[in-house]
Amino acid sequence: MPELPEVEFAAAIARKALLGRTIATVTTLHASQRRALPARDARRLAGRCVVRVNRHAKHQHLVLDDGAILAVHFRMNGDWEVGDSTQPLPRFARIVLTCTDGSRLCLVDSRALCAATYHAPGRPPVLALGPEPDALTVDLLGAALARRSGPIKTVLLDQRVVAGLGNIYAAEALWRSRIHPAQPARSLSEAQRRDLVRGIKAAIADGFARQGRYRDGTRERPFRVYDREGETCRRCRADVSRISQAGRSTYFCPSCQRAVSRKRG
Ligand SMILES: [Zn+2]
């Protein structure tokens, strides 16, 4: 599922496909997208030029020349596919942006969970986001975790704590910092918070180094611990475990990410 590095690379694709071009039509092909982006909103996009594509954590904002914004979130499986209006539509095309020069950008999503919403000029979406990994500090993380008694892995998925992390990079960051995913967030020691900030930045940097091209279901699994249940830990050779937390799979090494039984300074 696309997280910060993947969404940044997707935004770069959208920039290349749309910047300076004028939208001719926007078509929503699936009922769930039509609810979020009804035809009357799609029509407001026609004739507008795309002047910026901004990324905020996992959100992409296509900014139009009248100040309106088409806000896109890929959710679990969304992605862009570039083409032109002479080609057949991709199989899982959900929203199709066709430009006046015939170029086309499709939002493809096999699960149809992606969302695009129209925001009129002067009424941008309100995003409740914490710092992104590159702006994260030990103090900011400490303040965000201070009142959180939930397990650290689940808390890290809250975009108000760190913006842009998802299930993959949260697990990767905890492995890098040798923190057990079930440790209560507010019980992390200063040293653990420092390690975690480093781990988050390193995990995200790793994603950027792969150019963010990861998709579920492919055979390529470049991660340290994510999706490696039963395989050997790349650090200590113990078997990687999987547990369920808040309905999501968490992968970790039970040997080098040991549970902490008491609060440490
Ligand atoms: Zn290990």
As a whole number of angstroms, the C-alpha radius of gyration is 20 Å
Molecules bound to protein:
zinc ion
What is the CATH fold-level name of the largest domain?
A: Helicase, Ruva Protein, domain 3
Largest sheet descriptor: 4 strands, antiparallel
Helical stretch tally = 7
Please provide a written account of the structure.
The protein is an alpha+beta fold. It has two domains: 4-119, MutM-like, N-terminal (N-terminal domain of MutM-like DNA repair proteins, Alpha-Beta Barrel); 133-252, Helicase, Ruva Protein, domain 3 (Orthogonal Bundle), CATH 1.10.8.50. The chain has seven helices and ten strands. The protein has a four-stranded antiparallel beta sheet with strand order 1-6-7-5. The protein is elongated, with a radius of gyration of 20 Å. The structure holds zinc ion. Zinc ion (ZN) binds at residues 233, 235-236, 238, 253, 255-256.
Keywords:
4-stranded antiparallel sheet, alpha+beta, Helicase, Ruva Protein, domain 3, 265 residues, N-terminal domain of MutM-like DNA repair proteins, binds zinc ion, 7 helices, single chain, elongated
Q: Can I get a quick summary?
A:
With 265 residues, the protein is an alpha+beta fold. The chain contains 7 helices and 10 strands.
Which helices and strands, and how do they pair?
Elements: H1 4-18, E1 23-28, H2 31-36, H3 39-45, E2 50-56, E3 59-64, E4 69-73, E5 79-84, E6 93-99, E7 103-108, E8 115-119, H4 138-145, H5 152-156, H6 167-176, H7 190-209, E9 241-245, E10 248-252
Antiparallel strand pairs: 1-6, 2-3, 3-4, 4-8, 5-7, 6-7, 9-10
Helix pairs in contact: 1-7, 6-7
Residues 233, 235-236, 238, 253, 255-256 line the site of zinc ion.
